[in-house]
Automatic annotation (TrEMBL):
Residues 7-156 form the CinA C-terminal domain. This is Damage-inducible protein CinA. The lineage of its organism: Bacteria, Pseudomonadati, Pseudomonadota, Alphaproteobacteria, Hyphomicrobiales. Coiled coil: none annotated. Pfam families: CinA (PF02464). Gene3D superfamilies: CinA-like. It comes from Pseudaminobacter soli.
């Protein structure tokens, strides 16, 4: 069994133990986190929905990310990750939301926002969202996206433990 499948199963079990549903808000992964979760039979008992918000317009329309936030900080920022996670909670039945926004490459990086930079947002219903970042080695788009899924699931597990 792959590590991502095992993590997805652990995350789903943790949600089940807490009696909560989960949602995702994904940009750079394009739905890979929700796919990892829904690949598991029985996941419908704890998975509510996944928002795939690749464009800024989708982030604003589906999650309520502020145009001001995007203009001031960009799509790949702490502020956007926080608003994505909070928006996923507000627009779903979920009690935990995992949000990711980053630069998977191979292009699009800059000196201040290199390829491999990913911001993670996590929201628990009734609590302020939190965010943290990682800079993954630029070992290709697939690598950055897989590591983003792994990290998001681990952050979710940590929040539920």
């Amino acid at each position: 069994m792959s590590e991502l499948r095992e993590l997805a199963i652990e995350f789903l079990r943790a949600c089940e133990r807490h009696g909560i549903m989960a949602a995702t808000a994904e940009s750079c992964t394009g739905g890979m986190i929700i796919a990892a979760l829904t690949d598991i039979p029985g996941s419908s008992t704890v998975v509510d929905r996944g928002f795939i918000t690749y464009s800024n317009e989708a982030k604003m329309e589906m999650l309520g990310v502020s145009e001001t936030t995007l203009a001031a900080h960009g799509a790949v920022s702490r502020e956007t990750a926080l608003e994505m996670a909070a928006g996923a909670i507000q627009n779903s039945r979920a009690s935990i939301a995992l949000a990711v926004t980053g630069i998977a490459g191979p292009d699009g990086g800059s000196e201040t926002k290199p390829v491999g930079l990913v911001w993670f947002g996590l929201a628990l219903r009734g609590q302020p969202a939190v965010a943290e970042s990682r800079i993954f080695p630029n070992e290709g788009r697939d690598f950055v996206r897989r590591e983003t899924v792994r990290t998001a699931l681990n952050l979710g597990l940590k929040a539920l433990d």
